[in-house]
Specification:
This protein has 125 residues and is an all-beta fold. It is built from no helices and eleven strands. The protein has strands at 3-7, 10-13, 18-25, 33-39, 46-52, 58-60, 68-73, 78-83, 92-99, 114-115, 119-124. The strands form two sheets. Strands 2, 4, 5, 6, 9, 10 and 11 form a seven-stranded mixed β-sheet that branches. It has a four-stranded antiparallel β-sheet with strand order 1-3-8-7, with no helix packed on it. The radius of gyration is 14 Å and the shape is globular.
């Protein structure tokens, strides 16, 4: 059974940093793309960043600035999202997801087969 378990969210002041983690288990992910999405209150879920399991390819949302950095530790089966200079508008539930690309666009949530339960990030001003 595939599991994606996020951690690392919390309450942080504006300007602070967080590193979110996503531990993946239950299958071999070698050809998968791992993505991070977020959903703010009252808004649709949006793509943040994604990375191939090898780490060789990365995908970015046009709306995301250099404050976000995705990385992967294959030995730990864990994907990370480093967020710096946090802003109140970054407040959202952050989700980890895994996609077997099959030619689908890895920036679209429709491409993803597995999802984590989400981790809440709240940024106070």
């Amino acid at each position: 059974q595939v599991q994606l378990v996020e951690s690392g969210g919390g309450l942080v002041q504006a300007g602070g940093s967080l590193r979110l983690s996503c531990a993946a288990s239950g299958r071999t992910f070698s050809r998968y793309v791992m993505g991070w999405f977020r959903q703010a209150p009252g808004k649709e879920r949006e793509f943040v960043e994604a990375i191939s399991w090898s780490g060789g390819k990365r995908y970015y949302a046009g709306s995301v600035t250099g404050r976000f950095t995705i990385s992967i530790d294959n030995a730990k089966n864990t994907v990370y999202l480093q967020i710096n200079s946090l802003k109140p508008e970054d407040t959202a539930v952050y989700y980890c997801a895994a996609a077997d690309p099959r030619g689908n666009n890895p920036t679209s949530e429709l491409a993803y087969d597995y999802w984590g339960q989400g981790t809440q990030v709240t940024v106070s001003s």
